[in-house]
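Sample intake — Endoplasmic reticulum resident protein 27
Collected from: Ursus maritimus
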Amino acid sequence: MSALSKKRQNCQLNKDIESIDATKLSRFIEINSLHLVTEYNPATAIGLFDSMIQIHLLLIMNKASPEYEESLHRYREAAKLFQGKVLFILVDSGVQANGKVISFFKLKESQLPALAIYQTLDEAWDTLAGAEVSVERVQNFCDGFLQGKRLRENHESEEKTPKVEL
């Protein structure tokens, strides 16, 4: 390669670098570095709430359940459909410390497994209790929430749940 050719290539590279939108690049890197499904625990909690993705879908299920492996597989498949739009989180209901998460969504142990969706910006949320985890069911639940449809009655009429560090 001649010196002139290298100079032109470097010049084009510099123009390409200058035209990159830093915000878009940052979002692209964050989205593509996330796991399809992140397990909720004290170590991941802070990162989850600091994420650029403001809608979180939680699968609340006991990992000791006989349906766990198959449910998680289908949940991961659904996560691929919403990558970059919805953060998919697994909450093990068999872990006592996760009881705060379950009670935040006003769920009882008898209603599990359940899906809970939460928007960090305005704290809007909805649940689908006793949910059989299928790609279609997860997709319909997420699509409905994204379109402003809620399964539960207006949460504003309920007693306001005080903001608690989950």
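Post-analysis note: Helices lie at 3-18, 22-33, 42-49, 68-81, 99-104, 135-146.
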